[in-house]
Amino acid sequence: MSQDQATSPGSAVRMRTTKRDLILNTARDLFLVQGFEGTSIDQIAEAARVSRQTIYNNFDGKEALFKALAGALADHVVEPLLGDELQGSDVETTLTTLAERTLSLMVLPSTLALHRLVVTEAPKFPSVARQIYQSGAARAAQALAAYLALQSARGVLAVEDAELAAEHFFGMLAGHRQYRALLGVEEPGRPPIDTRAAETVRAFLRAYRA
C-alpha cells in the first residue's frame, strides 16, 4: 500500500490545518515587522517554506491572510457563545467566560501589536481595514448580539437593542485597560482579569436582566 493510500481523510485534514496555521503565523510575524504593504506573498512563502501555490490554495491573497488573522482572534473570543454551551450554562457563567477570554486576549503583546498595525495601515488600505473589522470585532459583536437576543426571547434578559447591548458589553470590558496597554502604561494595583470580568458581567446583568 502506498503512503498516499495509507493516509486517512482525517490525517489529510489535520495536515492542511497545520499548514494553514503555519502560513497564518508566518504572515502575522512578517506583517508585524515589515507592515502590510512591505510584506509580499513570496516572502511569506519563503519564510514558511511553502510554495506560492500552497498559500493561494488556502488564501486568496494578502488581504485574505490579514482577514483570517482577525477572524482567528474573533473565533477564540466568541467560542463560549457557540455550540452546546448555550444550552448547558447560565447567562452569567457564559458572559463571564466570554469576558475573561476577551480581557486576556486584549492585552496580549501579539494582539496589541496587530491592533497597532491595523490602525497604522487603515488610512492607506481602507478596504482591508473594513474587511478586518468585519471579520474580527464586528463578528464578535454580532455573535454576542445574537446570544443576547436569544436570551431575551427566553425571558432571561430584557434587551431591546441587542447590537447596542453587545457594544456596551465589550466597551465596558475594554474601558481604559486596552488604551493603557496600547500605550504601554499600566497602573499598579489594577484588579486581575477574573475580578474585572466578574464585575463587568454583574454590572451588565444589573442593566439587562429581566
Offer a few descriptive terms.
mainly alpha; Tetracycline Repressor, domain 2; globular; Arc Repressor Mutant, subunit A; 210 residues; disordered N terminus
Fold and architecture overview:
- This protein is mainly alpha-helical and 210 residues long.
- The protein has 2 domains: 1-59, Arc Repressor Mutant, subunit A (Orthogonal Bundle), CATH 1.10.10; 62-208, Tetracycline Repressor, domain 2.
- It is 75% helix and 0% strand.
- It is built from 13 helices and no strands.
- The longest helix is centred in the N-terminal third of the chain and has 26 residues, at 9-34.
What is the secondary structure topology, with strand pairs?
Blueprint lengths: L2 H4 L2 H26 L6 H8 L3 H7 L3 H17 L6 H4 L2 H16 L2 H13 L4 H10 L1 H17 L8 H13 L2 H7 L9 H16 L2
pLDDT under 50 segments (min length 5)?
A: 1-16
Shape: globular
The CATH homologous superfamily name of the largest domain equals Tetracycline Repressor, domain 2
End-to-end Cα distance? 63 Å
Instruction: Sketch the topology as an H/E string, one letter per element.
Output: HHHHHHHHHHHHH
The helix tally amounts to 13
| Amount of beta strand | under 5%
**In the CATH classification, which architecture of the largest domain applies?**
Orthogonal Bundle
Number of DSSP-assigned strands: 0
